[in-house]
Each structure stands twice: as structure tokens, then as C-alpha cells.
Amino acid sequence: MSRGAEQTAAVSRPLGEPRPRGTPRGPAIELADLRRDFGDLPALSGVSLRLAAGQSLAVLGPNGSGKSTLLRILAGLLRPSGGAVSVLGCSLPKQTYRLRGRVGYLGHEPLLYRDLTPRENLALVAALHGIEAERRIDELLEAVRMSHRADDRVAELSAGMRQRIDICRAVLHQPELLLLDEPDAHLDADARRLIEPLIATGPSRTRVVVSHDREAATAAADAVLELR
Amino acid sequence: MTAYAALLRKDLRVELRTLRSLPAMALFAVTTFVIFRFGLDRESLEGELAAGVLVATLLFAALLAINRLFVAEREEGGFELVRLAPIDRTVLFAAKASALVIYLLALELVAVPIFALFFLDSAEGLIPLALILLLANVGLAATGTVISTIATMSSARDLLAPLILLPLLVPLVIATAGAGEHLLAADGPDYGRFGTWLALLGLYDSIFLLVGYATFDFLLED
Q1: A84 phi and psi, to 5 degrees?
Q2: What is the pTM of this model?
């Protein structure tokens, strides 16, 4: 939300044909009058929404409107300054510890060690999440057509390749909630098609996508949150 | 593989691949010995002067690694990876402190023999001194890891780490140099107060390991 703005609107809207979903459950995300300040500067204020499990939310807005801040709050990486935040049944920030390992977060910058290879990065994340994922790592690398560069250092990869690896990193532990900050960034049309199935919603997966591409984001979303 | 082992292996792998800390530490130590050799205009050192030169050199060389300890975590998202994972965050503290102990051991494997070559008439005191240095490494790593975490969050990282760390290391320096003074005495090692220095270092290590364990979780908060 830009400085000086007072209210942020949350609009839910159904989209055409409903996608096949599992049994509807409680809300995956519930925000009531969420506020986040950086010093005296309000980054977010008055954000309220309710997103059901298995749904996809598109977050739109101009630069500096607080989209990335919202995503970091939902991931438990930033504390809200005010309001109520519930994610996957965990009240934040008090129950952030219960949320760990259940969220797949794709930030603006890739969370990858530049001096490790993609395979080593993914193996590290698997170890942090306590999962044996050797086979899944191979499958993910193949799915994003990165097997041939799996043993090169991340520093040697292009921005688009890093983005593909970072998406593999975000979905490696099969999270219930995906928080994606411009997942299409640096990707060409072919790469976008490759990552689509990896970041799709499903009966047991909710998704929040920050995007600047209004048309594509709203077409793929069950609800839209417009930040100003 | 446990999260601890994975994080430690990552740090060691990156260091072996990039050689960002260890060569700089070793080079700094050797250069400092050369400067002391000519600055003091002495061909041999013993007692408190020998211990002081060795401990001060190792300490300042260690600062190079401590300053860099969390750079990748900050710049490449390592803090976020740990905060998003279902693990106790003190695992990162344990892994980083362990990595630092390994760096310090590697430094000492190079620096102590060169120190002996430059300054000591007898290497007899070096074996008991190794035990003292090992305990000092643990304390330095525990304190250095906590302070490096705090400094990394600041834009004045290079200034902040030594500024906060060095005063906290005074007891450790006193104990290490005190033990070294007797072990590197001109007439051979004196074990009279060896146990006292060991106990003091053990106490220092325990306190700062506990401080790190108790505070690290909060240090990673936004």
C-alpha cells in the first residue's frame, strides 16, 4: 500500500468453472485489519481477507504497495504490527513455530546458496525439512529441465535458471501453502509452462501469488487482493 | 542427514570451494608473525611475550572468519531457509560455531608451527598448549557466532563485530595467555596453574554456549 493510503480492499470473486477440489475445509488464511509498519512508515494497513483451503489468491498492486511484505508476514518471516493473522490455523506471530515446514515461500530474491549446486541446495533444504528427497530432487530438476545443470554452481546459472531451481526449492517439501512472489519473473514462455504444474493449487494446497501481470494472475485465481 | 550436519557440511563445502576465509586467516597470521619478529627485533620469545604474540595474532585472524560467518546467510537467504524449516533455530548456531572451531583448528595447524619456527627455542610446551587452544577455540566460536549474528543484521558489520566481540573476549584472552605464559616459559612448561586456566576456559565456554543457545532464536527474529 502506498504511503498515505488508508484502506486496502480485499475482493473475492468466483471464476468461471470451478476446478476440481477436495472437500472444502476451514479457511487457510484469515486476515483481519492487518497492519505492518516499518518505523513510522506504514507498509500495509487495513488488510482483511479470508481464503479457503485449496484456493488461489492473486495479490496485485503497484510497486511499494506491500505485496512482498504481505507474503513475508504470511510466511512467518515478518511480524505484523497490528491486526489478526491466521495461516493454516496458526495464529501469527504467536504460533509461527507451528507453521514452519508447511509453507513454500518464493521470494523476490532466490533463497539459494550461490556457491552450491542446485542439487546441493535442494539436498540442504530436504535435510532442513527432515525428508529423504533424493528421488524427488531428481524428478523436480527434470520437471524444470535443469538436470543437465544440476551439478553446476548456482552462481553460474542465468536468472531464469535460478528461478526454476528456486521454485523447485519452494515446492520440494510439498507444502500446504505456496507463497509466490512473481513466480514468472525471468522466465520465458516455455519455462512458465514447465513450472505451472509444480505451483498449481490442489485439494491440499492453497496458493498466494504476487504478480504484476493482472490479466494472467486474475485468470488463474479464485480471489484477488488489490493493494494500493 | 540431520539439519545440523547438513548446515555444517554446507559451510565447509563452500569454504573449500571458495577459500574465502581460511587462506586470509593463515596469511594474516603469518604476516603478523613476520611483523612481530622484526618489530620486536627478537629471534626468540618466551613466557608472557610469547603467549601474548600468539594469542593476539590468532584472535585477530579469527576476526576475519567471524566477520564473514553469516554473510551468505544474509545475502543468499540462508536465514530465511532456517526460519521456514521445521527445526530448532539453534541448530544454525551449533553448525556455525562448529564450522568456526574447524576453521580455527585449521588456522592453528598452520600458524602455531610457524610461530614455533619463528620464535620458540623449544616446542615442549606446544602439546599442552593445544588443549588450551582447543578450549579457547570453543569459547571464541560460541561468542563469535552470537556477535556475528547481531553484527550481520547491521549495516556496520565490519565495525560492530570487533567492537562488541573484543571486550567479551577479555576473560578468554586472559586465561589463554595466562596458561600460555607458563607453558612457553624459558625453562620449560610449568603446570602449576594449568588446571585453573583449563577450568576458567571451560567455564567461559559453558557460559557462552548457553548464552548462544538461549538467545539465538530471538536473534533471528525480524
Answers
A1: -115, 135
A2: 0.89
B149 Cα to chain A: minimum distance (Å): 17
**Nearest partner of B1 among B91, B93, B69, judged by Cα:** B91
Tell me the chain A residues in contact with residue B87 when contact means C-beta distances shorter than 8 Å. Answer: 100, 128, 130
Residues of B in contact with A115 (CB under 8 A): 14, 17-18, 72
Is A100 in Cβ contact with B85 (below 8 Å)?
A: yes
- Tell me if A77 and B222 make a contact (CB, 8 A cut-off): yes
Q: What is the pLDDT of residue A177?
A: 95
Residues of A in contact with B81 (CB under 8 A): 111, 124-125, 128
C-alpha B55/C-alpha B167 separation (Å) is 15
Question: What per-residue confidence (pLDDT) applies to B106?
Answer: 97
pLDDT of amino acid A1: 37
- For residue A93, whether the previous peptide bond is cis, meaning omega lies within 30 degrees of 0, is yes
* pLDDT tens digit sequence for B52-75: 999 999 999 999 999 989 988 999
B86/A129 Cβ within 8 A = yes
* pLDDT tens-digit series, residues A14-50: 322 233 334 445 799 999 999 999 998 999 999 999 9
Partners of residue A224 on adjacent β-strands = A11, A58
CA distances from A115 to A14, A45, A186, A218, B26 (A): 44, 39, 21, 37, 22
Tell me if A127 and B72 make a contact (CB, 8 A cut-off). Answer: no
Q: Would strands A177-181 and A41-52 be described as parallel, antiparallel, or unpaired?
A: unpaired
Residues 6+ apart with CB under 8 A from A94: none
B180 min Cα distance to partner chain A (Å): 39
